Amino acid sequence: MKSNLGIKIDYDSHSVYIDGISIDLTPKEFELLYYFVENEGKILSREQILNRVWGYEYLGSPRTVDTHIYRLRIKLGNKADYINAVWGLGYKFEIKK
């Protein structure tokens, strides 16, 4: 189980808790959040995210990443600002203390 200031992720059960409250994520949203938490503080390009979360065979639009991040931020509530766009580069997950 990974835990970062109010976000707890249990990979085995695909469970996520925000401030102790369970939230429902789609499988892709879960993988996306897990990947961000694994790489906290690092800028991840859309291509890196697509390769890791969707796999190399994904042939759709790279903007699907933006859509999933938008939905994930809504579900994260007051923790949404942990995911930041880095103009021209991608996204970064950073805990605000």
From TrEMBL:
Stored InterPro entries: OmpR/PhoB-type_DNA-bd, Sig_transdc_resp-reg_C-effctor, WalR-like, WH-like_DNA-bd_sf
Keywords: DNA-binding, Phosphoprotein, Transcription, Transcription regulation, Two-component regulatory system
Pfam families assigned to the protein according to its UniProt record, in alphabetical order: Trans_reg_C (PF00486)
Segments forming domain OmpR/PhoB-type: 1-95
GO cellular component terms, A-Z: cytosol; protein-DNA complex
DNA-binding region: 1-95
SUPFAM superfamilies: C-terminal effector domain of the bipartite response regulators
Transcription regulation in keyword set: yes
UniProt keyword DNA-binding, yes or no: yes
Superkingdom of the source species: Bacteria
UniProt GO molecular function: phosphorelay response regulator activity; transcription cis-regulatory region binding
GO biological-process terms attached to the record: regulation of DNA-templated transcription
Name this polypeptide is given: Transcriptional regulatory protein, C terminal
Species of the source: Caloramator quimbayensis
Origin organism lineage: Bacteria, Bacillati, Bacillota, Clostridia, Eubacteriales
